[in-house]
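Thread: Newbie trying to understand structure tokens

Hi all, I'm a second-year student working on a class project, and my supervisor (Dr. K.) asked me to get a predicted structure for one chain before our next meeting. I've only ever worked with sequences, so writing a 3D structure as a token string is new to me. If someone could post the tokens and maybe explain what I'm looking at, I'd be very grateful. Here's the chain:
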Amino acid sequence: MSETEKWWFTFGVDHPQHSMHYVVIEGSWGEARGEMIKRYGHKWSHQYASAEAAGVERYNLHEVTE
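---
Reply by user tm_fold:
Sure, no problem. This is what the structure looks like when written as tokens:
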């Protein structure tokens, strides 16, 4: 079994609901990606291993709260 990690997923700037937002999901790379697809389909941009890599502070992104 893979080690559980946190993953940051971003949405494109043209996303109708979540532009300038991100989601954090825990799991292996594949588990987290699968959960993201389950929640949002393929309408998101990128998967990152850290908030810094995702540009959370640099671009002033906001977390999607569900």
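A couple of things are worth pointing out once you decode it. Strands lie at 5-10, 21-27, 46-48, 62-63. Residues 5-63 form one domain. Feel free to ask follow-ups in this thread.
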